[in-house]
Structures are given as C-alpha cells and as structure tokens.
Design brief:
mainly alpha
C-alpha cells in the first residue's frame, strides 16, 4: 500500500508540474498535465522498485 500511495503522490506532483510548465510555455494544459502525470508515476514506481530491490539484497546478504 505504501508503494501505491507513493506512486499516486508522484503522479499528482508530476501532473501539477506538467500543468504549470504548459501554462508558462503556452501549450495545452491538459496535455502537459497528462504527460507530467505519466512521467511522475513512472519515475516514482521505478524508484520504488529499485529501492525495494536494494532492500531485498541487503536482507539476503
């Protein structure tokens, strides 16, 4: 459950940043928000996966 809530937080932050950048650059806010959400969710999920792998490796060592 922790990973899911972390990914949701990453998606929310990514969407906010994407929307803000779209507003500043004058491009589509909907597209900027959608792309930012996907990038935020993907990046956060990847980070959680890497951290989980490292923790598992430490336990096995």
């Amino acid at each position: 459950m922790f990973i899911l809530s972390t990914v949701i937080a990453g998606a929310t932050l990514g969407g906010t940043i994407g929307g803000a950048i779209a507003t500043i650059t004058g491009t589509s806010v909907a597209t900027g928000t959608a792309v930012g959400t996907l990038i935020g969710a993907g990046t956060t999920a990847a980070a959680c996966t890497v951290q989980g792998t490292e923790a598992a490796a430490r336990q096995l060592a």
